[in-house]
Structure formats: structure tokens, C-alpha cells
């Protein structure tokens, strides 16, 4: 009996110290529960809701009921509730530490892929400390960051000549190379080799945001294509990968049914691709939204998505519970009712142990 009890105790202790080899965090910007339901009606069973543990989350900043992406991402990445417009700053404007910095210090690789411009609220809160309108500071923080892989849009602010498609002399793209990055441009064309010791890779794949999925320019890639290509540049173990499906938010701001459907299809394909790309038994997958956008409702139709009618009640973010979905190693830790800021704390607890 004693031996049995001891074995049981041992297994509990080893369970509580099990650390995933990799963490994959997908942020659906503006993706409320009804967006998830719509994606499932349109494109079949969504692994995000069928496979994953589903929890409710709160997201309010300290100065409002309704959050913007910067404050929500600061709560998520730094565990600090702050004011709207603050990316990587506390309510007084002081820098807060990002999970990217903490994990780098613990020997992890950190990567972020987004189809928004690099200076948008969500990516900025990952590596910068600035108010979201301060593009200059955000750009400086990007140059001085320590991310292993960063993929975004925003080429227009980085010194790319829009006529020749070539980087300007002494522009920010060149400074990124001087900071140790291999720099890629449109369609992952290599623009610069790193100068000195290689720190990582950065790719900027569009002027401004990547276009909507149903209106991609010939030189742009869809989000799942971007993720597939990005994964050729980095691998685990000890990889913390953030993928942002950013344009669900923009599609919902303009209340455009066709655009939001296309963005949700790209989101669903991206989730499947990520599940296929990592060992599910050793990876923690998290999917969550920073907030809901548009007040999307489905007011008509049947389960085969025939004659679906969508209604919108807002052109902005709304107050609602957000989905926090988790799957794989460590996912049981996310079963409580959480604020976005709790996700950061739990993640760092889970990743405090040794990788097997
Ligand atoms: Zn928005």
C-alpha cells in the first residue's frame, strides 16, 4: 500500500513539473465566440473548439470596460493590466517585461508571426514599450529587440523604395541587418544577410497590413502560407511561437461578411497547419482572442450554413467574454475563469521547469 501511495505521489509530482517542449499561441484579433461559431458553420468542425479545452476570459484594461489591442496584448504578454493605447507599458507609462524577454533569459527561442503591420498594437506589445501611436519608438524597439523570428507587414515604414522594391541605403531594414538579423522582404526574398553574429530572422511581407485574404495582391501570401514558410526558418524545442490572425479585427470593424468569412477560413487553416507541424503530445497550444469586434451575430440560416444571415451591432470593439482555448501539455492549467493577464503568469509557471 505504502509503495502504491509513493508511486502515486511521484507521478503527481512529475506531472506537475511536466513542461511542454514548445508553446504555440494563436491570437485571433477581434475573434469572439460567435466568430468561432460562424467559422465552424462555414468550414466544418473547428479543432479550436472541438479539440481544445474552452474557458472564458475577461480582458478589460484599467481605464475602460472595452479594450484595444495594445492594452489586451500587454495584459497577455506582460501580465499587467494597463490603459488603452499602451503597448508594453504600465498605466503610468513605465516599461513592463514581456514574456518574450523572460523566456529568452530562460533559454527559449521566441517568434512572432502576424499579418498586420509590425507597429500594430498586438505585435508592438510583444517587443516594444511605447504608446501605439509612437511608431518611431516602436521601430527603435524592434531594431533593438532580441526576437529569434519576426514576421509582419509594414514595409512602408522600413525604408523600402515603393517604385524599385529595393531597400533604401541606411534605412531601417539595413539597421536590422546590422543588429544581427537576416532580413527578408516581399515573398521572403532575402534582402540582407546579418552583419556580425546572427541574432535571428525578420521578414516584412507587405506594405502596411497584409491585404484581406479574399483580396491578396499578387506579391502577398495568405496567413497559412506565411506560417508554413516561416516554420522553415525556425524550429523547436523550446520554441515560444505567437501567431496573430490580425485581420479578423479589421474585417469586423468594417462589418463585411465576405471579408470576415475569408479571414476565418485562413484562421482555421492556420490552426490545422500548426497542429500538424508540432508534436501534439509535447506542445502546449493556446488559442485566444484579445477582444470581440463588431458584435457579430448570426440571425438566420441552418446548420449547413445555407442562407446564413449575419448582423453587426458595432463598428468597433465590444465588451464580452473572450474565448481562451487550450490543448496539449499543460492545458489543464487554463481551465479557470481568467483575465488575459493571468495567462502570462500561468504560462511562466508552466515553463519554469526543465524541458524533457
Ligand atoms: Zn480593432
TrEMBL record:
SMART domains, per database record: alkPPc
E.C. code: 3.1.3.1
Pfam families: Alk_phosphatase, Metalloenzyme
Binding site for Zn(2+): 29, 249, 253, 290-291
Record: residues binding Mg(2+): 29, 120, 122, 244
GO molecular function, one term: metal ion binding
Keywords, in A-Z order: Hydrolase, Magnesium, Metal-binding, Phosphoprotein, Signal, Zinc
Cofactor comment: Binds 2 Zn(2+) ions. Binds 1 Mg(2+) ion.
Domain of life: Bacteria
InterPro entries documented for this protein: Alkaline_phosphatase (IPR001952), Alkaline_phosphatase_AS (IPR018299), Alkaline_phosphatase_core_sf (IPR017850), Metalloenzyme (IPR006124)
Domain Metalloenzyme positions: 217-351
Signal peptide boundaries: 1-18
Leading EC class: hydrolase
Gene3D superfamilies, sorted: Alkaline Phosphatase, subunit A
CDD domains noted in UniProt: ALP
Cofactor names: Zn(2+); Mg(2+)
Record-annotated active site: 69
Family membership noted in the UniProt record: Belongs to the alkaline phosphatase family.
Protein name, as recorded: Putative Alkaline phosphatase
Organism (species): Mesotoga infera
Phylogenetic placement of the source organism: Bacteria, Thermotogati, Thermotogota, Thermotogae, Kosmotogales
Amino acid at each position: 500500500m505504502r509503495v502504491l501511495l509513493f508511486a502515486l505521489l511521484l507521478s503527481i509530482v512529475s506531472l506537475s513539473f511536466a513542461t511542454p517542449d514548445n508553446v504555440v499561441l494563436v491570437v485571433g484579433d477581434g475573434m469572439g465566440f460567435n466568430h468561432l461559431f460562424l467559422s465552424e458553420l462555414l468550414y466544418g468542425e473547428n479543432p479550436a473548439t472541438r479539440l481544445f479545452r474552452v474557458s472564458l476570459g475577461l480582458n478589460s484594461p484599467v481605464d475602460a470596460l472595452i479594450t484595444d489591442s495594445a492594452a489586451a496584448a500587454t495584459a497577455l504578454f506582460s501580465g499587467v493590466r494597463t490603459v488603452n493605447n499602451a503597448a508594453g507599458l504600465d498605466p503610468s507609462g513605465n516599461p513592463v517585461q514581456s514574456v518574450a524577454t523572460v523566456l529568452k533569459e530562460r533559454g527559449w527561442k521566441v517568434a512572432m508571426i502576424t499579418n498586420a503591420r509590425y507597429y500594430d498594437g498586438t505585435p508592438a506589445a510583444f517587443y516594444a514599450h511605447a504608446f501605439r501611436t509612437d511608431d518611431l519608438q516602436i521601430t527603435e524597439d524592434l531594431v533593438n529587440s532580441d526576437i529569434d523570428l519576426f514576421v509582419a507587414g509594414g514595409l512602408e515604414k522600413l525604408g523600402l523604395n515603393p517604385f524599385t522594391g529595393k531597400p533604401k541605403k541606411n534605412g531601417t531594414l539595413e539597421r536590422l541587418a546590422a543588429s544581427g538579423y537576416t532580413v527578408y522582404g516581399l515573398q521572403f526574398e532575402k534582402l540582407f544577410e546579418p552583419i556580425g553574429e546572427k541574432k535571428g530572422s525578420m521578414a516584412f511581407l507587405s506594405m502596411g497590413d497584409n491585404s484581406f485574404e479574399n483580396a491578396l495582391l499578387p506579391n502577398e501570401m495568405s496567413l497559412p502560407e506565411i506560417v508554413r514558410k516561416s516554420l522553415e526558418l525556425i524550429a523547436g524545442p523550446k520554441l515560444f511561437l505567437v501567431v496573430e490572425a490580425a485581420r479578423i479585427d479589421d474585417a469586423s470593424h468594417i462589418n463585411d461578411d465576405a471579408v470576415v468569412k475569408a479571414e476565418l477560413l485562413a484562421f482555421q487553416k492556420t490552426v490545422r497547419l500548426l497542429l500538424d507541424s508540432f508534436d501534439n503530445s509535447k506542445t502546449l497550444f493556446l488559442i485566444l482572442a484579445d477582444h470581440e469586434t463588431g458584435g457579430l451575430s448570426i440571425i438566420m440560416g441552418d446548420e449547413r450554413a445555407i442562407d446564413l444571415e449575419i448582423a453587426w451591432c458595432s463598428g468597433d470593439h465590444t465588451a464580452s467574454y473572450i474565448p481562451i482555448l487550450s490543448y496539449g501539455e499543460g492545458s489543464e492549467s487554463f481551465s479557470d475563469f481568467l483575465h488575459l493577464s493571468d495567462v502570462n503568469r500561468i504560462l511562466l509557471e508552466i515553463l519554469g521547469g526543465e524541458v524533457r
